[in-house]
Specification:
Elements: E1 2-4, E2 12-13, E3 29-32, E4 40-50, E5 58-68, E6 74-75, E7 87-88, E8 108-117, H1 130-137, E9 141-151
Parallel strand pairs: 2-9
Antiparallel strand pairs: 1-3, 3-6, 4-5, 4-8, 5-7, 8-9
Length: 155
């Protein structure tokens, strides 16, 4: 599988409009190469450099989507209407929507991880986030792709 964004190149800087200093829109994403037998996709966006890349202590979760229909192939910029049966999980702000990069110090890496699964995850309950989705998808990953972008506050 391959995951790309027309907004930034692999390991490149994420434009300000997709961050807390801009419009905080989700970046456009597109993917290809879903393995045969894919029943759903999962997208997790997180930052392993929190709070300081020189001394990271946590991975901050920015977005959790699951049960993305196979064959959808894209998420538009500022995705508010999600494809078909897509479900949202809680991020580390305890919200169900995208939360853009907002690093307190230094240049952070933002991992956009897409997984193809041989099942639909289904309803995980109202408090479900990354940990619950990862537990549900364990042993069911057919393929995966990753796109990393970086961001450092301008101020």
């Amino acid at each position: 599988m391959k995951l790309d964004s027309p907004a930034f190149s692999p390991n490149g800087a994420i434009p300000r409009r997709y961050t807390c200093e801009g419009q905080d829109l989700s970046p456009p994403l597109k993917w290809t190469g879903e393995p045969e037998g894919t029943r759903s996709l999962v997208l997790i966006v997180d930052d392993p450099d929190a709070p300081d890349p020189a001394a990271p202590r946590a991975t901050w979760v920015h977005w959790v989507l699951f049960d993305i229909p196979p064959g959808s192939g894209t998420l538009p910029e500022g995705a508010r209407e999600l494809p078909g049966s897509t479900r949202t999980g809680l991020n580390d702000w305890r919200k169900r929507e995208y939360g853009g990069p907002c690093p307190p110090i230094g240049r952070h890496r933002y991992f956009h991880k897409l997984y193809a699964l041989d099942l639909e995850v289904g309803d995980l309950g109202p408090g479900a986030g990354k940990a619950e989705v990862e537990k549900a998808m364990a042993g069911h990953v057919l393929g995966q792709a990753q796109l990393v972008g970086t961001y450092q506050k301008e101020g």
